[in-house]
Amino acid sequence: MFFTSDNAAPVPPEVLAALSEANTGYTPGYGTDAVTAAVQDRIRAVLEAPEAVVHLVATGTAANALALATLCPPWGAVFCHTHAHVQEDECGAPEFFSAGAKLLQVEGAHGKMAPEALARRIAMTGGSVHGVQRGALTLTNVTEAGTVYTPDETAALARIAHEAGVPVHLDGARFANAVAATGASPADLTWRSGVDVLSFGGTKNGLMGVEAVVFFALDRAWEFELRRKRSGHLLSKGRYLAAQMGAMLEGNRWLDWAGHANAMATRLAEGLKARGVTLWHPVQANILFAQWPAGTSARLRAAGARFYDAPAPEGYEAARLVTSWSTTPEDVDGFLAALQIS
């Protein structure tokens, strides 16, 4: 009963088979091979963006930090949600790769940035040599709270940013889960809503380790290539990144896997609520936060459950629970059964 992270899930057999197939013969390096070209075309087709520039990296940290460094100068500000992954879980990577850009936090309920809060923050930034200037906006979909931005919500925030001359980055580490949850098209959740650069996640959707950085704003794409090389994130054997992404995008797998993860989270949430457990945020994708009486976590772990703790009020415990493509109904039902142990 593993609910620590979708990062902890195994790799689907289709991905391992694709890696084995790619491991035949010789091919050009550094992403100039036919496997990579085919995947780039496939991502463009998925996003309905035939002119987009697509590059692959091995980690989400590299995808986000290099994308933001490309959009934001060292003297600029990256506007992010207070609990965004780039703010709380990247060990300062955006600041490091941008040579000093400052992360400015924007409030919003349930992990989603409030438009009025973003407008205020942008209005207070820039105009003086003594402070950082307006740099870039980064949104996260699925958010760190497990909630999902709709196309309209994304467009409202992007409009505020663009009116101030600020480009928009979307951290889509769980982009597949967001698409599956909303039913919106990938294009509607990205460039049609004003997103300039997308980090299209694969690792959290079952892959061994690959993310795509997609530039809809083409004027920055060459700079990204230089930054990727200079930072050591241009893999010489790029076909092994592309093979993974290609296997995920084959047919409807990427949405099937993400949709299954979302469904398991819904099943878990419904079972928890039926047992009187408090959930902190709406459960819209594959992440949920649960609060229960003190002592419950130890009983769950003794029964074999694995999850991360979250801060909780006195007398209570809280947990972050994440489902994946490999979570089974039996995993969920076993967790719920263990929850009843007293």
Automatic annotation (TrEMBL):
Keyword Transport: no
Signal sequence region: none
Pfam families referenced in this protein's UniProt entry, alphabetically: Beta_elim_lyase (PF01212)
Cofactor: pyridoxal 5'-phosphate
Entry-linked InterPro entries: ArAA_b-elim_lyase/Thr_aldolase, Low_specificity_L-TA_bact, PyrdxlP-dep_Trfase, PyrdxlP-dep_Trfase_major, PyrdxlP-dep_Trfase_small
GO MF entries: threonine aldolase activity
Catalytic activity: L-allo-threonine = acetaldehyde + glycine; L-threonine = acetaldehyde + glycine
SUPFAM superfamilies registered for this protein in UniProt: PLP-dependent transferases
Keyword Cell cycle: no
Enzyme Commission number(s): 4.1.2.48
Aromatic amino acid beta-eliminating lyase/threonine aldolase domain segment(s): 3-290
Keyword list, A-Z: Lyase, Pyridoxal phosphate
GO biological process, one term: L-threonine catabolic process
Role, per record: Catalyzes the cleavage of L-allo-threonine and L-threonine to glycine and acetaldehyde.
Subunit structure: Homotetramer.
Family that this chain belongs to: Belongs to the threonine aldolase family.
Protein name (Swiss-Prot/TrEMBL): L-threonine aldolase
Organism name: Gemmobacter lanyuensis
